[in-house]
């Protein structure tokens, strides 16, 4: 990278975050570097807010023509298209690697394999089915469904991104074709990430049917989920990979939906 190039602006970092986490076309008028990607991670939760907005709009359109169950299925399909199944791919790779490997090296080798194994396929089916059923239940209240999408899409990305601050990155071998991943989370980026989450939580409390107790319970469950994920990844790999972050996002998102369903 040319060191004489100015550092990307906050707007450019936001666009990089959108480009990294989604298939939404954006124009990046700067040279992307590892440093820029690390800085862009501060806006990953904001990308979740953007996705929640698009998915919510999609549901409103779909539900005008179709029943709730079909509308939810279409919204999930829209989400997969928007993200390129980025996080779902990480979830499948993690389950394949952790389920099929004994040593760390074996697990990493399996995780980089582009083929889908039994563990990964089973994990994807189970997670998608539970997510579908949870959203169908939540769709009984339009307000609750839209807020669930907002909380699920944004807070899950905070949980996943925050792992970078507390864990070591485990690199694959030099010959593997790894996906780019943020490997450092600065204090400023962490603060922006949490501030985004705080704004989302405040909005959910003020403009939804959720009580402060509901909000507190969601935060508590996500905190416990984060602790379990850290313990799981450290036990399996002594750190994290990009696939681990994708799996963390999917598990945290599902935790949000299940928590809300359990409190109905």
UniProtKB/TrEMBL annotation:
It is an enzyme of class 2 (transferase). It is found in: Cell membrane. Its EC number is 2.7.8.26. The keyword Transferase applies. It is a multi-pass membrane protein. The chain crosses the membrane at residues 12-31, 43-62, 68-86, 116-136, 142-160, 181-206, 212-233. The keyword Aminoacyl-tRNA synthetase does not apply. Keywords: Cell membrane, Cobalamin biosynthesis, Magnesium, Membrane, Transferase, Transmembrane, Transmembrane helix. It catalyses: alpha-ribazole 5'-phosphate + adenosylcob(III)inamide-GDP = adenosylcob(III)alamin 5'-phosphate + GMP + H(+); alpha-ribazole + adenosylcob(III)inamide-GDP = adenosylcob(III)alamin + GMP + H(+). Pfam families: CobS. GO terms for cellular component: plasma membrane. It comes from the Bacteria. Pathway: Cofactor biosynthesis; adenosylcobalamin biosynthesis; adenosylcobalamin from cob(II)yrinate a,c-diamide: step 7/7. InterPro entries: CobS. GO terms for biological process: cobalamin biosynthetic process. GO terms for molecular function: adenosylcobinamide-GDP ribazoletransferase activity; cobalamin 5'-phosphate synthase activity. Its cofactor is Mg(2+). Belongs to the CobS family. Joins adenosylcobinamide-GDP and alpha-ribazole to generate adenosylcobalamin (Ado-cobalamin). Also synthesizes adenosylcobalamin 5'-phosphate from adenosylcobinamide-GDP and alpha-ribazole 5'-phosphate. PANTHER family: ADENOSYLCOBINAMIDE-GDP RIBAZOLETRANSFERASE (PTHR34148). NCBIfam families: cobS, PRK00235.1-3. This is Adenosylcobinamide-GDP ribazoletransferase. It comes from Pseudoalteromonas lipolytica. The gene is cobS.
């Amino acid at each position: 990278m040319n060191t004489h190039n100015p550092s990307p602006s906050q707007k450019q970092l936001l666009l990089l975050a959108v480009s990294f986490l989604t298939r939404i076309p954006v124009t990046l008028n700067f040279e992307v570097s590892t440093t820029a990607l690390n800085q862009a991670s501060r806006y990953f939760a904001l990308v979740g807010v953007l996705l929640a907005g698009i998915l919510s709009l999609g549901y409103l359109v779909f539900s005008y023509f179709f029943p709730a169950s079909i509308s939810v299925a279409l919204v999930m399909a829209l989400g997969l298209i928007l993200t390129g199944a980025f996080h779902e791919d990480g979830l499948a790779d993690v389950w394949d690697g952790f389920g099929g490997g004994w040593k760390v090296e074996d697990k990493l080798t399996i995780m980089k394999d582009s083929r889908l194994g039994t563990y990964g396929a089973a994990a994807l089916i189970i997670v998608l089915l539970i997510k579908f059923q949870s959203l169908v239940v939540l769709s009984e209240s339009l307000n609750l469904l839209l807020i669930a999408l907002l909380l699920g899409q944004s807070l899950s990305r905070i949980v996943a991104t925050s792992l970078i601050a507390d864990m070591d990155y485990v690199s694959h071998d030099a010959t593997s074709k790894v996906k780019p991943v943020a490997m450092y989370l600065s204090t400023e980026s962490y603060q922006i990430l949490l501030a985004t989450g705080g704004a989302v939580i405040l909005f959910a409390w003020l403009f939804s049917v959720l009580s402060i107790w509901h909000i507190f319970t969601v935060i508590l469950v996500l905190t416990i989920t984060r602790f379990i994920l850290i313990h799981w990844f450290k036990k399996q790999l002594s750190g994290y990979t990009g696939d681990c972050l994708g799996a963390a996002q999917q598990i945290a998102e599902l935790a949000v939906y299940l928590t809300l369903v359990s409190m109905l």
